Amino acid sequence: MDRLKSLGVSLSATAHERRKQVPVRILLSLLVSWALHSAGQDQWIGAWLVAVAVIQGFEILAMVRFRRPGANPGAVDVILALASTLAMATLFAGTSVAIWANDGRGLEGFAMLIIAGGLLTNVASGIEARSIFFVGATPYFVGLLAMPVMALFGSPSGDPVLTSLASVLFIGAILNVYGRVHAARAAELCALREAEMRVEQAQGAMADRAAMAAIISHELRTPVSAILAGAQVIRDDAAPAQRQETAELIVDAGALMTRMLNDLLDHSKMEAGAMSLESRDFDLSGMISDTGRFWRAQVAEKGLALRAATLEPGLWLRGDPYRLRQILNNLMSNAIKFTARGEIAVEVAVTPEGSGERAVTITVRDQGAGIAPEAMDRLFTPFAQGSSEVARTYGGTGLGLKVSRDLARLMGGDLTVQSTPGEGAAFTLSLRLAVGEPVTGDEATTIPAPELQPSLRILAVDDHEINRRTLALVLQPLGVELATASDGLLALDLLARQAFDVVLMDVNMPGIDGNETTRRLRASGGPNAAIPVIGFSACTEADQIAACRAAGMTDWLAKPLEPHRLYDALHRAVAPEAERVEA
Length: 583
Hints:
The protein is an alpha/beta fold. The protein contains 17 helices and twelve strands. Strands 1, 2, 3, 4, 5, 6 and 7 form a seven-stranded mixed sheet that branches. Strands 9-8-10-11-12 form a five-stranded parallel sheet, sandwiched between helices. It is elongated and about 125 Å long.
């Protein structure tokens, strides 16, 4: 039955092709009538014309459903259509054999032309499906093979050996032609389907990009509005108390924008297959403890309770702690956002898994409104929320969960969710991580804000004026001597003419970038050839950082620049060699 239904798609093209052949069949039926008259068989002309009319009418009725756009013919319709094709072919093939066998009238060539024409019309009408072609062509093949048999048993029309060879060769030629035509049509249809699929994908991508642009535009307006309003308040010389509150508002808005941009960047890297992971030793118990401390204030501010698992200290594993922390922070942020009252729980289970591995499951459980079953499919879709009401109420880009699940799978694990509407949701991160080695020291400890000598000469190189002005604003409290350059060539010119103590170098610049500028500086042999160069960029991949080091940079910072990290880098740059802390 499934095979018959699948033929229905191909029969649509067959129905249109066979309708075009109706005038040819009418003309052929009149020519056959003339041949019957020439053979002295006038008594068969009426029956012949009636048979043609009946079978042609049957075929038109059987094929009519396949010519209607949007129709959905069933198996019975397919059987009737194939039966009409077989009946039409049998009628003309049988008639051609009868004419060929008629003695002494010289109509053998006409009979062969009927068979040849019938086979060629079936090549055209069955081009998309072999089954349709063979249903219509088989009666003609049978007629061709019957002719040498009839000659063998006494028919005077032709030599049996020659007729047999001619019939076999003709059948082979028709099959060869059909095979080539069918293959070409199949390739054409495949290319057409692929083109249609690509058009649909392109249209879907355009729609996704439009939705993304609308969502990002909407979400960015909130922190941008806060920053602009806060800056206006400070510029209008607000009271000291209000100034402090406004500064905190600007910092929070900037952090929100940074998280959004980081999610966008991570999503783009995932789609391009360019995301890479670190492999380093870290203490899972310390990470869970830090996560609890980090979010406890926001949980309390919303009137919620936080219950975080307490693990044995020194639970060392090997993996990417930065990305793991990113997933946890996304889950915590969502749990707090969607919970109006109740408790947020962080549950952790670590069990041995083979030699030198641990199975880690971290569950973030909330008591929010839960997730409706119909919203589950959209939950991990970028730029989509569980519902329009959720999008209006809570906002957001919908990227956090998508990025988190992609990161989990990149680590060889997964991120799953269980939820009952009205009873909250539980997101579970499952990973297998190798056992790590304890690391001495606290890499997270930062150096206290430095006291730099006021005479420190700094050259800041950045192609964007806003960034240069930002650096000047951040460095102003230090009282340093600051010079700026908008590109690598100008920076090299300044470095050749006057001495500096430190260079702050943007990595991505038009013309010659920061890496090439640093290479040329190191090779110049000038007064600044050996001074510290601190690179900064929004690209945080390990290979890109390594490229900065290879170019001759002595330190590296991620954009957006945080003032205390910049101060720490300057301290490392100007500290005596023995006191320097490698970044």
